[in-house]
Each structure stands twice: as C-alpha cells, then as structure tokens.
Amino acid sequence: MKDSLLTNLSVQTLFDAAADAMLLVDNTGHVVQANAVALELLGYTFEQIIGLEIEALMPKNYRNQHHHHRNTYSKNPEKRPMGKGRDLVALRKDGSELAVDISLSPINTGDQQFVLATLHIADKRRKVEEALKISEERLRLAKEAAGLGVFDFDYRHNIIHWDERMRDIWGEESEESVSYKKFVAAIHPEDRAARQAVIERAIDPASNGEYSVDYRVKNPNDGVERWIATVGRIHFTNGHATRLLGVARDITDQKMLEKTLQEQRAEMEALFKQQVASQTVSAIAHELNQPLAAISAYSEVALHALNSSTFNPENLKHALEGAVAQAQRAGKSLHELLAFMQKGELVTERFELNHVLKEALNIAKGDGYGDFSPLLSLEPAMPEVLGNETQVRKILVNLLRNAVEAMRGAGVPSSAISITVRTNQEINMAHVTIQDSGPGLDAETAKRIFEPFFTTKPTGIGMGLAISRALTESNGGQLWLEQNNKPGATFHFTLPFATLAFAS
Ligand code: ADP
Q: Do domains 2-126 and 147-250 have the same CATH topology?
C-alpha cells in the first residue's frame, strides 16, 4: 500500500510541494527540473527554464567565475551552502536581480551526477536580521543612556547572570555569573531584609511578579557604597518562580541630593522656628513696653504723692488708677496677641469704624500720645465694617503712636495728624488714611518698615508695623505706605464692609 502510494507520487509533485525554490541541474550545468516556487521566483515558465544553462540565471559578471566553481564542485560534490557567505544574486527573466541564499545538494543516480539547488530570498532574511540588529543596538544604547545594568537570576541553579555594568557596581570584574550568596553579600546589611520582603511579595504566584526596590551596594574593592534602584519581574513555570529578570540603576547622586535637600529643609525649619520664637518675644515686648513705662511713671507719681509734705489722696488715687488701667490693658493686649498668634479662628463682628477710631484716639491720649491735633474727615453714615474690633483698634493705635513718635523725634512745633475715613468706591471697602506732619520716610527706610525688627528708633522694637500689617490682612484688608512728595508720612489701610449691610 505504502509502496504503491510512493510509486504514484511523481518527482514533480514532490518538487512542487516544497516551500523553497528548487532547481535540478545536470552535470553539464543545464536545468533539468524546476519547481513551481522556482518558476515564480525567477519569472520563467517550465518550458522556458528547462534546458537553460544555469549561468543564464545569474548576472553576466558572475558567469565566468561560476563555470570555474561548478567544475570545482563536480570534483568534490557535497551538501553545502553556496558562495561561502558572499552575497549571491539570481537573474530573473525580466532582467531584474534578486539576492538569494543557495544551498547545493549532490544527487548521484549511479550513472549521472545531478545537483539540487535550493534558493531562498536573501533580502527577507537580511531585513529581519538587520531589524533585529537595529533593535538590539537601540536597546543597548537605551540601556547605556539610562545607565542600566541587567541581571537574570536563575532560581534553579541559584546563580545570577549579569552584564558588565552590574559587575562594575558589584566590583566583580570578569565573571559573567555569580552565586546568589555572593550577590547578596555585597548588599548593605540594613537593606537586605527590606529587599528580601519585596522579592518575596513578587514571588507569590498570586502577585503579578513585578517588583521594585532601592538598596545600597558596597563595592568590596574600593569600599564605595552606592544606591541602586532595581526593577524586575519574576517568571513562573508551573506556579514556581524560575527566573528573576531585572534592571538596576545607580541612583547614588539622586539619593545624595535628596539627603542634602532634607538637611537643608531641616535647617530652614529650625531657622524658621527660631525666627518665629524671637518674633513672638519681640511682639510681646512691643505690647508690654509702653504700659510698663506708663505703670512705672504712675508709680513714681504715687511715691511722690506719698512722700510729699502736702499729701493729697486724690493725686495718689489718680496715679494708682492709671497704673491699674495700664496693667489691665497690658494683660488684655497680651492675651489678644497670643490668641492671634495661635491662629485661632478670628472672631469677627460688624462695627462702626468711626466709633473705633474715636476709641483709638482716646487710648493714644491715655497712653501719653495725645500731643497732637487730630484733623478728622469722616464719611457720615458709612456702612459698618466686618472684622475684629479689638485688632482694628490696635492697628489704629499703632499708626497713631508711630505718627506721634515721628513728629516728636523731629521736634515738629504744631503737630497735626489728619485722619480720613471714607468708602473706597473702586474696591468697595472702607479706607482709612492717616497722614502726619512729621519728617516722612526716605526711600530706603520706606522699603523696609514692614519687615519684623526693622526700627530706626533708639528704643524701638520694629514690630509695630509688621503686626499691624498681619492684623489688617487677617481682617481681609491691606496696609501700605503711600510713596509721595507730600510732607509727613501717609499710611493707608482698608477693611471689608459687612457685605449684607452694604448691599442692602
Ligand atoms: P518701631 O516703632 O518699634 O520702630 P514699627 O514697625 O512700628 O516699629 O516701625 C518701623 C519703622 O518705621 C520705624 O522705626 C520708623 O523708622 C518707621 N516709621 C513708622 N511710622 C512712621 C512715621 N509715621 N513717620 C516716619 N517713620 C515711620
């Protein structure tokens, strides 16, 4: 049965079934058989190709050489590729050329020698090879550019294969593989457990096998410690981890930078805390300075009254009342200041700014800053503002006190402070302007007056304007110094209206 099947199978049928182009050539170099793929490839019909000298199927400049090769081959026929790695070219019927790889197989029928030539299109293979080369080259370049080392841990043999870059980091110059034990030995002892935990999580078949971990590696040759970031994936076979393939990158510089930044941040924080502490102390001093001076003055008056030959209990009473009032105010101020600094929720209320201004004028007077004539220009029936009344009063007192101190310092004879309270239509806010008749400020001083601790006064603390600005802003307004050529200093501040009252 089998035999009869093979008997029926013609050589031509077999030939045509082959996937490669095939030509059977006799010992005179003439084509005696060709399969369908060969006909298609070379562009001949069966009738045209049979009997052709094989050299007719190659470009002219190859032909002479080929006669010689054919003779050599017939003396020592063997199965081998043709051309010994040279590029071979076939000539098609239409004159076009085709790069091919050709394999030769001698067939001996007893009385005659044939050669079977099998042709593959070389272009296709070459293109694939080239593409592979290009992509390998790209990968290599990318790896190099990213400074990546590659490693492949074979679980079964407990061995790690690694590339040059990895070996460089681990200080192993030549070995292409390393035992897992040796690999781990170079890892910083403090980082081993964390690394192991990450890998174990990835080894769990329920995970997606991916892992990423940073650790330190100490090069045993130079003792240099480097930070390495590794990213990899576990490969499983039948639910068991068999390979761990990963890349490693030296991130030492990045880690050092992070460390420096962290240190700088900590330093800045410490400096900031120090500043806050000293500003707090200065703000407290600012609040206590004046009342303490007043209490001391009242006490002296009281002592004087007691020691005086004409003892007058009224004088004593007046001095003690003054001292008590100052002490109480100092306590209250301190309390408010601390509340503000603790940034508790700001208690706001609606109030009449003109009324608070009058209170501030009285306080300034009571504090010994009453030696000026106030020139008031108050908008009648101004809508109520919204803010913390105590804080707004403090802003006004601070500005008035500064104005008086400036005028006193300059020895201005008829000192006046003009105070305007009006609605600023443009921004729909209450707008207060305080202009004194002192010496004003030069440009350099003007630039710095809102800085904490900036003062030009011998006993100044330099916190009054810094606090006043912070208070204005926390009340939703702005405080600024007007830069102008007018005599004296002009300060402005704004406050929001209690919206509902204004809108109605
Ligand atoms: P201090 O009053 O303790 O100096 P301030 O913050 O209140 O602190 O003021 C800072 C500086 O601003 C003052 O030392 C002074 O040089 C300047 N200054 C403030 N107000 C006036 C003003 N009305 N006229 C001139 N200079 C002023």
A: yes
> Which protein residues touch ligand 1 with a CB less than 6 Å away?
402-403, 406, 436, 438, 441, 445, 449, 454-457, 460-466, 489
Looking at ligand 1, which residue's alpha carbon is closest to its atom 1?
462
Cβ neighbours around 73 below 10 Å, total:
16
For residue 348, the CA-to-ligand 1 centroid distance in Å is: 28
Confidence of residue 501 (pLDDT cuts 50, 70, 90): very low
CATH hierarchy code of domain 147-250? 3.30.450.20
Euclidean distance between CA atoms 123 and 135, whole angstroms = 18
pTM over 0.70: no
Say if residues 360 and 351 touch (Cβ distance below 8 Å): no
Give the fold, CATH level 3, of 256-341. Answer: Helix Hairpins (1.10.287)
* CATH architecture for the domain at 349-503: 2-Layer Sandwich (3.30)
Ligand 1 atom with the smallest distance to the CA of 456 is: 14
Please report the atom of ligand 1 found closest to the CA of residue 457: 14
354-397 residue pLDDT tens: 999 999 999 898 888 889 999 999 999 899 999 999 889 989 99
